[in-house]
Amino acid sequence: MYNKRILTIAHRGAAGDAPENTLAAFRLGLEQGCDAIELDVHLSKDGEIVVCHDHTINRTSDRSGAICELTVDELKQADAGSWFHERYEGEQIPLLEEVFELVPPDVMINIEIKDSRGRKLEPVLIELMKRNNRIENVVVSSFDHKSLVFLKLLEEEVKLGLLYDCNPVRHSLMAATAEVPIYSLHPNFKRLGNEDVRDVIEQGLQVYPYTINDEDLMANAINYGVSGIITDYPGRLKRLLDQIAA
Ligand code: G3P
Ligand code: MG
């Protein structure tokens, strides 16, 4: 049984049912009732923050090339929907600012920095978040923990999410919090352990494991006491939470 609000976090949008990291996927996540959206960011050749998982657009569009070598104009010519399904033909690679415009301010956004291009992305990101009033309800995460430290130096109020895929939780947590306070832990769900999670929750940190799509695994994570779950199927998680609450 769970007795607290567990966030449904739509991974790359509702990536199980729509082309990942597109406005269509974010819209669908919102329609399915998600509380938060996770997305991945890179810097374009002309210094804009664009939303895409890989460092190239090869897998998720009809064009090819590294994002850091393409301008926004060039990126916008790519069809980022057809590879998933023909009904998404014409879907574009979004700018982060377009996602800020789409997503209501009460829906949390988890921005995952994939490649900061030698620390060039962080100042642009902080500036963009401030300009769009998105310091409050955004968590910035990364496997690159030094990037998180840099963000905190740039803006003290920024909420940081520690992404990791190693064991045990305790070591990562100690290493990170020694340098800078973090808001949430984002472990690979395979690294979830009862004791570790309880420890960090007691310290007041949120725990958002990624990426759980199977119902039984979702139920396990809920029993562990996580604060939210990152999933490609937000509708599925919502239904499960509703069933448990009923
Ligand atoms: O932020 C959680 C998760 O998205 C990390 O892995 O590869 O799906 O970006 P990945
Ligand atoms: Mg991600």
TrEMBL record:
Signal sequence region: none
Annotated InterPro entries: GP_PDE_dom, PLC-like_Pdiesterase_TIM-brl
Domain GP-PDE: 6-241
Superkingdom assignment: Bacteria
Name recorded for this polypeptide: Glycerophosphodiester phosphodiesterase
